[in-house]
Design brief:
By secondary structure, this protein is α+β, with helices and mostly antiparallel strands. The protein has helices spanning about 55-60, 90, and strands at about 15-25, 25-40, 70-75, 95.
């Protein structure tokens, strides 16, 4: 599980994807994807048609659910034991697991 999005001695991580998998029937769209994007950075997601770019972006945006793994956005330290009630989307960003 993603425990700290702010790593000691580094810039704040704005997007973290950990062990994400997504299937459409028997088709594997994403397999064990791990990504960390630092806050304020510019990143290009490149690949051939059908390689999972749109699927990954959909999971990060919360438009799709991964079959396994997690996507966390909005720079907040998060642990699965945290009480997230009362924060709402504006307070914690988005957690997709």
């Amino acid at each position: 599980m993603i425990r700290y999005l702010s790593e000691p001695g580094s810039l704040t991580v704005g997007i973290a994807v950990e062990a994400v998998n997504k299937w459409f029937g028997n088709f594997v769209a994403l397999q064990d994807i791990n990504v960390k994007v630092r806050q304020g950075s510019l990143v290009a997601l490149l690949g051939p048609s059908g390689s999972g770019k749109s699927t990954l972006l959909g999971i990060i945006a919360g438009l799709e659910q991964p079959d396994s793994g997690c996507s966390v956005t909005n720079y907040r330290n998060w642990d699965e034991s945290d009480d997230l009630s009362g924060y709402g989307i504006a307070g914690i960003g988005e957690i997709v697991c």
